[in-house]
Every structure is written in C-alpha cells, then in structure tokens.
Design a protein that fits this description.
Elements: H1 6-10, H2 18-32, H3 41-57, H4 60-69, H5 91-101, E1 117-123, H6 125-130, E2 132-143, E3 158-159, E4 168-173, E5 176-181, E6 190-191, E7 204-215, E8 224-227, E9 243-249, E10 256-258, E11 261-268, H7 270-275, E12 277-283, E13 286-292, E14 301-304, E15 320-326, H8 334-345, H9 357-374
Parallel strand pairs: 1-9, 11-15
Antiparallel strand pairs: 2-7, 3-6, 4-5, 8-9, 10-11, 12-13, 14-15
Amino acid sequence: MSKRCYYEVLSVERTASDTELKTSFRRLAMKFHPDRCPDDSAAHDKFKEAKEAYDVLSDAHKRAMYDQHGHAAFEHGMGGRGGGFSGDVGDIFGDIFSDIFGMGGARGGRARRGSDLRYLLELDLEEAVFGVDRQIEVPTLVACGPCSGSGSEDGKTSTCTTCRGQGRVRMQNGIFSVQQACPHCAGSGKTVANPCKSCRGEGRVSDERTLQVKIPAGVDSGDRIRLAGQGEAGPAGTVPGDLYVEVRVREHAIFTREGDDLYCEVPIRFAQATLGAELAVPTLGGEASVTIPAETQTGKLFRLRGKGVKSVRSGRTGDLLCRVVVETPVKLTSRQRELLEEFESTFAGEGAQTHSPRNRTWFDGVRQFWDRVTS
C-alpha cells in the first residue's frame, strides 16, 4: 500500500508554517494517541502516520528533501539523516503534550528528556540564498564527564522510594487525575546514594558546546533547523533535548526579499528614462542587462526571471524585479541649466500637456475635486 502525501496526512497546505504543522499534528495526536484509544489498531496506525509526517515536515532539511523528491527522499538512505518514522509512539507526549498536561514527558516509567534549546543565527542575504556552513557556540547543560551522566560517584543507583521505580506519580486535582514525572527522581525511577562530586548527582554540568551547522540554500527569516539530541542534557540517565537553530536574515544594502523574489531600486537619469537606455544591474550571481524603453516612468518594474532565490522547499527559483527611479539632476553647470531652460520653454502652449500624461490626469482630478467642493 502506497504512502499518503505527508501534507494530506496532516491536512495542511504545502506552504504551511511550523505553527500550522504543530497545531494540526496536536489535533490528530489528541484524537488517535494509543493512550486514548488503547484497543483501536486503526487509530494506532493513524497516529504513527501522523507522527511520521510531522517528523519530516517539522525539520527544515527533511522537508526540503521531501518537497523535492517525495517519499523517495528517505528510501535507500537518500535523506542522509533519515526521514521515516522510527520512534516510540509514546515519545511525542513529552514533545507535544507536556505543556497541556504538565506531565514532563514521563510515560511508561521513562524519565523526562532534556530541554530543547533555541539558537538565533543571523545570516547575510548571500549566505541565506546560497547556503553556508557555520560554527556556533551554544551555552548549555552537557552530560557530566566523571560520572558519564549517571550522577553517581560509584556508578550505583537504587530504586526511587517515592515512585517505586515507576518514574511517575499521580496527582489528584478535584475530579482530574494527572500523572507527572516523579519530583524526587526527575522521572528516572532511580536515586543515587553516593552523588558525583562534579555534578552533585545531577548527571549534567554547564558548558559551552561548539557545533557545525549546515544551512541549506534558500532559507529565509523564521526558518528553523532541528539538530536532534544537541539540546540540553536531561537529568541523570535521560536523553538530551533538541537544538533548534532559527534563521534571521540581515537587511541588504541593495536587495529586498519577498518570498522567493528579490527587489531592488535602479536610479536612472532623466534623459535615460526619456530616450531609453541599456543598463547593467546587479544580481546575486553577477551583472545582468536591462533594456529601458523610451518614455519610461519612475516606479516601472522590470522582471529578470530566474534571478531570485531558489526555494529550499519547492526548488522553484524566483525572479529579480528592478524598480527604476528617475533622479533629478543636481549640481548643474551653467551650460546644463541653459539647456534645461531652453528645453522647458518648448513645453509652452496648448500642446504641452500631451507630453505629461500623469500631469494631465492629476489636474483633471483636481478640477473635479474643486467642482464637488464648490457645488
């Protein structure tokens, strides 16, 4: 049986944001999670399908691969980091529902994971468009070296007496009964009799981790790259969280980006706009030629197809749109002023307005306005 499109599974458009993906997955997970439908195998399959789709589409790299190659991107190792569903169905409770139920992710006796981290990475427009490898330094909690993250000086642990090794306790609040991670053992189900002196039994210490991040070509402000397992180390014996690298693109001196298109302003002289000209304009890949026809007005847009940004998701390349701005000449010589005065004198008479179409329509609008006001 062939797989359904991941976007169809989550009932979202291909342009869906990370927030829309998460909202849709929450809705499906709340409906089909095995804890809610323990005897419904069809619901279990739907949950796994939704989890697999969300795992791929919530990761910028995997989503780009999927948008370009579909399900084939994750067959035969093509996806690099893997894109199929490989986790336990219970894992998502800690990632998605902890903020709803306050459960801290402790299910089935497993301890809560480490916290996810967010790192804001600023890029130049060229780096975002063409991709770049960047080295970042992330202050975080890492596994303690002397005790290998166990929190025990001698490596010995004992069963937690509060939760009796279950890693979770039940809290009663009126008619509601909620399970949460055991506060005594932090959900691990184990306690340490002889705590490590370096980490004081926590199993983790503060440090700064240096990581190499590969930024795919075409990212834009707001895009996130997830580095699995590179977040904050969890309490002793638990798995670390993830690191989310969020991209912010700096303003560019020439170009403005809107989606996959780039915009720039091109100043031209009065004579060039009137008589026409051939101009060399900058692009991110070098210079390009633009033909300015005679009688071009300021604000006119000229489109250079394929000179924009290649989308990280669809693979489509946008356009460069050049907006011409007719400049008023400054610091004129006496001769230049004489020529302009002579030129201006040729506009005298009844036919002058034929040379200024916008001026004529503007005066017509003013006349109609005063007629309404005075009537």
